[in-house]
Amino acid sequence: MCALYExxxxxxxxxxxxxxxxxxxxxxxxxxxxxxxxxxxSDETDIFMNLHPDDQHRIRDILNMVVQSGDSMMVxxxxxxxxxxxxxxxxxxxxxTTDKGGIRNILFITRDISxxxxxQHELERMAxxxxxxxxxxxxxxxxxxxxxxxxxxxxxEKFAIxxxxxxxxxxxxxxxxxxxxxxxxxxxxxxxxxxxxxxDAVGRLSGDEFSVVLWNxxxxxxxxxxxxxIRHAFAQPCILAGLESGIPIKSSIGYAIYPDHGDSVxxxxxxxxxxLYKEKRKRHQLRLRKAGDRRALQQx
Length: 300
Description:
Elements: H1 2-13, E1 18-22, E2 28-31, H2 33-39, H3 56-69, E3 73-80, E4 86-97, E5 103-112, H4 114-128, H5 138-155, E6 159-166, H6 169-176, H7 178-194, E7 201-206, E8 209-215, H8 220-233, E9 251-258, H9 265-298
Antiparallel strand pairs: 1-2, 1-5, 3-4, 4-5, 6-8, 6-9, 7-8
Helix pairs in contact: 6-7
């Protein structure tokens, strides 16, 4: 057995994967040199050290399942390197049995998958984020709403979706060019992000149309308060280099509340759109009335 153990140890000492041998409680009895080379530690005493807090229970569950079932398990988790960075790793845990079939040790083989995770992150970013503003795109906003809808049904809570667009955005593009128009869209997105709460989601649906999902609202008063915050955020014009004066940012905003205005994502989007166009029509009529009043005042 000792000769076999030495053969395994010789293999582990020259393996790029991180290899640890623990007892059934997770106490480390052996760690390969690659473990220290990748993470920078030389004093690891148990498998749970330097694990991300959100992952510790997962590794503990894996350890218990391996001990109880005798089967190998695999899990992805995060380890903190000595420089403070979190490293994504893929860990397999396998039982080492005694001659009588009992479990003596657990063999952990861990591989750095940071590059793979980064690639997955980039794919997700391209699939679910708007390329110009970095906000969520329409597809991701619908996914978020589907998830919130299920949570809201279970918790008997409300949430709201806001849809808004930039007033006279076509005029901005026609006057200053599309490059300036893109900068205005990015500034609009930035101000939305600055005024969101932690669980709120902000997205660009298309062109100059944006959306905000407000989680856990009490009702219309909460949504109206948020709308006023947004209007206040747009009170200052967009200041861009090379332009003598700032570009005013105005927005029409419509919204729908679950379950008051619908019980599906499709219906809520539709009702928010209806609310938006009612708001735009109301603002247009107000501008016409003001223009008519000015003309009446100018008449002799």
